[in-house]
Input
Amino acid sequence: MILHQRFIPGLAIASYLVADEATGEAAVIDPTRDVEPLLRFAREHELRVRHVLETHVHADFVSGSRELKARLAEAPVIHCSGLGGREWTPPYTDHVAQDGDDVQIGALRLRAMHTPGHTPEHMSWALFDHSRSADTPWMLFTGDFLFVGDVGRPDLLGEKEKQELAGQLYRSVFETLAGTPDFTEVFPAHGAGSLCGKALNSRRSSTVGYERRFNPALVSKPQEQWVRDLMAEMPLAPPYFRRMKKVNREGPAILGPELPGRKRWSAQEVHARECESCLILDVRTKEAFAAAHIPGAISIPFGPNLPTWAGWVLPYDHPILVVLDEPAQMPEVATHLVRVGFDQVQGWVEGGLEAWATRGLPLARLDTLSVHELQQRVAPDCSGLTVLDVRTEKEWRAGHIEGALHVHGGQLEERVGEVPHDQPVAVVCGSGYRASIAASFLKREGCAEVANVIGGMSAWKAAKLPIIVPE
Output
């Protein structure tokens, strides 16, 4: 048997390809939209992808099932759960899977196991290798049901649905999973960094027995207490999750072999607004952005967290032009964006900011403050200056600057009216990354005097400056 795990940092997504070596038949589980690496692996190992299996309608990335089917000469069968009703059965499904359904690939068999709770339709897929045992599952592909160190959150569909889903999740954990042997290996759809749970481990696989012993969410307790403990300190769910659910439920557009964003735009074309409604996304470092940038640009530095923060802060109804350091980065930037549904990537500014500046076009800059400069400005109080803390609730409660305004960075778009526009704003996060994103958004929204606090609360605490810890 061949098992290939493809892990995508940042979004912390794990997709899988399993294949029977004797026949060369393969199945892919939970593919992302950028399918070329999976196709390349299949070609290199002379495998034929016969089936594509989904564990559920994903909320944090765009599914690649339709893309895989469109790109393969011999179209695979797409299997999606039908146990959430018509609303949660994607129309591109070829086989509407029910609990106990089997998918055969050579000597391997994948059996559908209904494990609702994260979503109503959620399926896990148990793998049996008939060359070893036709009755005992060797592996369990758990999607967002069971993670290493956690289980999937039940609150993504709304408060009303949360209560029902939490009860379903409890039964999936303590009843459905009960018949699975301890030695069965667990391969989840996410690892540490994903917001589909609150305490995911960085390990990318485990066993059912190890999770039963050491996973806090698998410790047996009364249902009401279990749900209360599960939901305690659950991180905020990004609003783009709702959009991803809709896209995956209805069926994402097929991209084809070429990613969007291949066009070069001259600085003059961008300045002349030839892409009239385009949003400028600056993926250079936060330091470079602070020194100089195109007015109105949003800063999200290039790296694994780009798609998560793009989903948090970028509007989906605007085409995107990218400012970057090297044109070679553009394919990866486009890949990050299409994974979370930004299909209108128009291209990049040729020559970057240097070309813009040498043509004498307008420039903006983002002020920066050291923690010592900020401390001087807030003492003895914050009058005349708003300190905006964009960290998570958990980080805020671990200690913050007295008098600061707390708005999670991902909620800034909907709560921007709470931030005073008529006085200076100093934005602080853990180290400066999120604050740069938030500060660029505030400048675009009309806050004239905005500064990023260099080093964030990490530097503030290292300097032993005073903090407030709520009781």
The first helix runs from residue 36 to 44.
